[in-house]
Specification:
With 138 residues, the protein is of the alpha+beta class. The protein is 20% helix and 43% strand. The protein has 1 helix and 9 strands, in the order H-E-E-E-E-E-E-E-E-E.
Length: 138
């Protein structure tokens, strides 16, 4: 290959990488102003604008009495948008499923959100599962 062909191939490769990055950002951010998070996003820092929303899906099993519960949040920055939803993964007795939380960015600032997975009749303990993420709202 000549030097000119290598340069063209390099430019095409960079263009492909740029397109992939944009697609990943749009999938996570959503064209509708909704950011989607799941277990793989633990510890994430999410940049948002006022009026946007975070949708968080976490696996669990409500039939055991364990639920994901928000244990720390700054409601002046990020407010829960209603109660969480739970959808079972099947009709089988004892089947697990997905808890879905929605949060609205309501004010400028930074807030850490902490959720813990523990039985509804107990207080969270050091052994409870946890999920944390941070939002920065501009």
């Amino acid at each position: 290959m000549t030097r000119r062909r290598w340069t063209a191939a390099g430019a095409a490769g960079l263009l492909i990488v740029a397109v992939v990055v944009v697609v990943v950002i749009l999938v996570n951010r959503g064209a509708d102003g909704v950011r989607r998070l799941d277990e793989g996003d633990a510890g994430a820092v999410v940049e948002m604008s006022v009026g946007e929303q975070v949708v968080l899906e976490l696996e669990g099993n409500a039939t055991t009495g364990y639920t994901w519960q928000v244990t720390s949040i700054d409601p002046a920055v990020l407010a829960p948008a209603g109660d969480p939803d739970y959808e079972s993964s099947s009709d089988a007795d004892g089947a697990g499923g997905t808890f879905t939380f929605r949060f609205d960015a309501v004010g400028v600032g930074e807030a850490q959100v902490v959720l813990m997975y523990f039985p509804s009749w107990e207080e969270p303990s050091a052994t409870a599962g946890s999920f944390t993420f941070t939002v920065v709202v501009d």
